[in-house]
Amino acid sequence: MGRKQRLVVDYIKNLPIGEKISVRGLAKQLDISDGTAYRGIKQAEDKGYVSTIERVGTIRIEQKATRHRELLTFREIARITGGEVVGGVNGLDKPLNNFIIGAMRAEAVSKYFAANTIIIVGNRENIQRLALENNVAVLLTGGFNPSASIIELANTKQLPVIQTTHDTFTVATMINRSLSDQEISHEIITVADIYTPLDQSVALQSGDTVADFRILANQTSLSRFPVVSNGRLIGVITAKDLMGYSEQTPIERIMTKDLVTVQKHMSVASVSHKMIWEDIEMIPVVADNQKLLGVVSRQDVMRALQSVQQQPQNINTLEDEITAYIEEFPITTERYSYDYRALVQPQMINSLGTISYGVLVELITYAANQKVLDATSLNNIVEQIDLNYFNLIQIGNEIQFSVEIFHLTRRSALVEVNVYIENSLAARAILTLQIIERN
After folding, report:
1. Which of 6, 152, 248, 325 is most buried (most C-beta within 10 Å)?
2. pLDDT tens digits for 81-91?
């Protein structure tokens, strides 16, 4: 990508979602040729920043998060480890479920062989051969070259033999991190996982009337419906919108056209934020061209969030790593009483030796979450945090957290968290949390 095309892509990235983009307009704005503007827009489209919608034009859209593949492949392992494929090229797209380290005797390592596995091994041809004969791929570390007979066997079995200059520990760490990332990504729930498709939900047509709304509402016990024209979402109508209108009034005249929508790739957490912010019970799910795909309800979102928070966590995220160091403060009769405490670890600091701002926010968030959970027995998520940082917190400091809920409703909580070092105030945060109700 040329410098001017990168300029176009960077410009588009900074445009608000929904902004319409034209080749001529961009060319004039950035003082570039139409051809350069066109190529830059296509690059932005490839990166997921824009979408061209029929009869509408090119629109800035929310970038779709890149999701990991359902399974890693041997091809991905070669890329991750910077390896060279020296045999078994036809098996590169086979999935990988596990890896083993061939640092044991042949009779011992054999019991770990399984389908979709790769063995990490050095210059031990007997182990390499045994693995291939048992349908296990081979990753050679230390830059060792396999023999011609090993390459021939790999080609016959269509199992990759990958050569890398890295040592065994480094390679194992790389693969383990990729498998963990894959597992974490797989556990993230999106709209696609929970929404009700259009063929299982209901919508009104642009030509329907208030009477049609009432009939559908009686049939479904719902009070909010999307409105479509030729399959594309054009509005949303609720029971409140009908007040004062006759039964023959077309709903297109009274529906809400200022739409709140979501797309299938969005996370459930982002949808929950939209629902509580807009105070709505149902959000239409649309494609880039506004075609209605289905709906997602508050009940769908609440069930999903509860399910996630109740699941046992087998893979540690950065959040897990950070909050592992915070604990409840021991019961004390001293003048100063706190709720939680944590010792600042070397991995929590920045280049200046003080606590990372992000780590401090994570610890404060955890303290607030736990306090609200203890008070309500309901899960919750942070919607907003305002943090003032007064005194530097350094490596080795024990920090204490005093948490107070000063406003609590059925749907939200306002929490103040004060952070102390040796009884001196170091930081103060005000958090708004959304309560996740049980169904």
Report:
1. 325
2. 889 999 999 99
* Residue given tokens 């007979």 in the structure block: 149
Residues 170-214 have pLDDT tens digits of 888 788 777 766 655 555 678 888 899 988 889 999 899 999 999
Six token digits for residue 269: 């957490």
Q: Measure the CA–CA gap between 158 and 186, rounded to whole angstroms.
A: 28
Strand partners, 433: 382, 413
Q: How confident is the model at residue 335 (pLDDT cuts 50, 70, 90)?
A: very low
Distances in Å between the Cα of 50 and the Cα atoms of 58, 67, 417 are: 7, 18, 40
Burial zone of 144 (CB within 10 Å; 0-12 exposed, 13-18 middle, 19+ buried): middle
Question: N- to C-terminal Cα distance for the chain?
Answer: 51
- Distance set, CA 55 to CA 44, 230, 298 (Å): 20, 13, 32
Strand-strand pairing, 204-205 and 224-229:
parallel
Render pLDDT for 231-278 as a digit per residue (tens, 0 to 9).
899 999 999 899 889 999 999 999 998 888 988 888 777 787 777 677
- Measuring CA to CA, how many Å separate 104 from each of 4, 111, 139? 56, 11, 15
Q: What pLDDT is stored for residue 334 in this prediction?
A: 54
Q: Is 370 helix (H, G, I), strand (E, B) or coil?
A: helix
Burial class, 12, CB count within 10 angstroms (exposed 0-12 / middle 13-18 / buried 19+): buried
pLDDT value of residue 437: 66
Residues 64 and 144: beta-carbon distance below 8 Å: no
Burial of 62 per CB tally in 10 Å (0-12, 13-18, 19+): middle
